[in-house]
């Protein structure tokens, strides 16, 4: 059997709020609450299990989501409509901009718990091309 990431736990101040926030931006479904977790599954089968923890115990993490161009456009529109601050860089020094790394587009935003979320249309290290994200292999 090959090794695949199955799920990861995402600490949140409010697990429902954080799960619904990400699901809304990425047009994903929020799963049924399971114990202390609120799951959000991605199309490649990885589940983000949001768990409420005390705010002081949340260490900022980074989560990057590879999306197709049309999915980027839709997520970007939802981010703009909601008035969510977004940036071209992970250091949050270029507000209101997107980047064009690897021949694609990307942006960063924070979730309600302060985690850095990224959407990108080309994986890091991709040759500069117009190949859709769905036709490239993620690293």
Question: What is the topology?
Answer:
Layout: E1 7-12, H1 15-26, E2 37-41, E3 47-52, E4 62-66, H2 69-81, E5 86-87, E6 106-110, E7 116-120
Parallel strand pairs: 1-3, 4-7
Antiparallel strand pairs: 2-3, 5-6, 6-7
Overview of the molecule:
This protein has 139 residues and is an alpha/beta fold. The chain is globular. Mean pLDDT is 92; it is low at 131-139. The protein has one domain (7-135): 2,3-Dihydroxybiphenyl 1,2-Dioxygenase, domain 1 (Roll). The longest helix has 13 residues, at 69-81. The chain has helices spanning 15-26, 69-81; strands at 7-12, 37-41, 47-52, 62-66, 86-87, 106-110, 116-120. The strands form 2 sheets. The protein has a 4-stranded mixed β-sheet, with helices on one face. Strands 1-3-2 form a 3-stranded mixed β-sheet, covered by helices on one side. Helix content is 18%, strand content 24%. A hairpin with a 5-residue loop joins strand 6 (106-110) and strand 7. The chain is built from 2 helices and 7 strands.
């Amino acid at each position: 059997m090959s090794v695949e990431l199955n799920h990861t736990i995402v600490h949140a101040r409010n697990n429902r709020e954080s799960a619904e926030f990400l699901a809304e931006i990425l047009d994903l479904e929020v799963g049924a609450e399971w114990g202390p977790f609120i799951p959000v599954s991605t199309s490649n089968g990885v589940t983000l299990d949001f768990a409420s923890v005390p705010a002081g115990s949340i260490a900022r993490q980074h989560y990057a989501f590879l999306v197709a161009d049309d999915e980027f456009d839709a997520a970007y529109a939802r981010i703009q409509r909601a008035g969510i601050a977004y940036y071209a860089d992970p250091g949050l020094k270029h507000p209101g901009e997107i980047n064009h790394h690897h021949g694609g587009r990307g942006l960063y935003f924070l979730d309600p718990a302060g985690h850095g979320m990224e959407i990108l249309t080309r994986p890091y290290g991709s040759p500069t091309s117009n190949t859709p994200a769905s036709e490239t292999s993620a690293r």
